[in-house]
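Handoff note, outgoing to incoming analyst
You'll be picking up this chain. Sequence as last confirmed:
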Amino acid sequence: MTLRTVSFLSLASILIVGCGGGGPGTSQSSPAVKSSQPTPTIALTATPTSVNQGSSTILSWTATNATSVSIDNGIGAVGVSDSRQVTPTVNTTYTATATGAGGTASASVSVTVVPRPTVSIQVSPSTIKAGGTATLTWTSSNAVSVTMENGIGTVASSGSKTITPTASTSYTATASSPAARLQQRPM
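Most recent structure output, in case you need it:
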């Protein structure tokens, strides 16, 4: 019984030596060596970070210890420190990657695209007698506020109002979003 235990331990010792090796047919990895090159850094900004649909923003970046920089979302290779005007159509996160002898570094910035507000306004009937009434009806989307001229003021984003003009009168609805305004007259 003791002989078997000794053989087993001896076999285990041989396997350990074989795995750590250096014998024929084995490969060894060298310990990790840190690069003496400084690691790249990169900063990326967007001005402004929120734009109206169809408007542009300026991406600006500065990299240090880098030999190349690339930006995703169709921009590609760019200078190490530069800027570029972009016109995103939807909310977009841009990531810039700086590469140098000391490795890589990345930075990201998000740009929010604010949909344009829309507003439509109708009047019914479109012709009335003096002292008669008509109804203004309006709807809007992507608006934080809607205002009407001729003494009506701020109204809900969609609704209707009975009017009694004393003379021929034009009404204009203005829809506003955080970054845009749209005016519409009755159709």
